[in-house]
């Protein structure tokens, strides 16, 4: 089989976070899989609310269209809000996987119940909406926040990372769970160490999404174009977004 090329899209403009996400993806990808990590040149430096998601979605779609033109075999949306996921599936020929959806699916394969550890409390409602949208309300025990912003994960002090660890320990102790989902792409490099320390699966959505794309590619499967995820209707898009014209 030909090399699987995966476009890894960080929806925020942080190059440092994009590089960390890329490193996490490359640690788990199969030999021969090519990871093409990108982030938009314009947009928000972090995605931490509905407004941020709306702004980031246009950058995601522009990068998906760019990846389609470069012949990638799959796209990963590396933000736990999965911004623009369904729109990207309409646009792309190759499969598109969001990291929240991927991580929750993986968690249910290795445990009957899981909890989520994310960044700011204001994003808990967004995460809960996704839990219900993806049908995991019975399996998701609880959502935890470290109450620090996404970019704090890049802080050399390590405070945010310590807070993630503490919340994971609390979730294991109190929630009656068998697995933990990390609710931010910026936590991608913490999963392996936390899994060893806590002795339960701690799941990073970036890694989960990469492995799902590889599986879909190996099986020759992509997004169904029959029904609501069919190609977008041909329309002339004007102004700043005219690069999205089909």
Report on this model:
The protein folds into 2 domains: 5-98 and 207-244, Rossmann fold (3-Layer(aba) Sandwich); 100-205, Rossmann fold. Helices cover 41% and strands 14% of the residues. It is built from 8 helices and 8 strands; from the N terminus they run E-H-E-H-E-H-E-H-E-H-E-H-E-H-E-H. The chain has helices at residues 15-28, 50-69, 85-91, 99-110, 124-133, 159-174, 191-198, 205-219, and strands spanning 5-9, 34-38, 74-77, 96-98, 114-118, 140-145, 179-182, 202-204. The strands form 2 sheets. It has a 4-stranded parallel sheet, with helices on both faces. Strand 1 (5-9), helix 1 and strand 2 form a beta-alpha-beta unit. Helix 2 (50-69) packs parallel to helix 3 (85-91). The longest helix is centred in the first third of the chain and has 20 residues, at 50-69. It is globular and about 55 Å long.
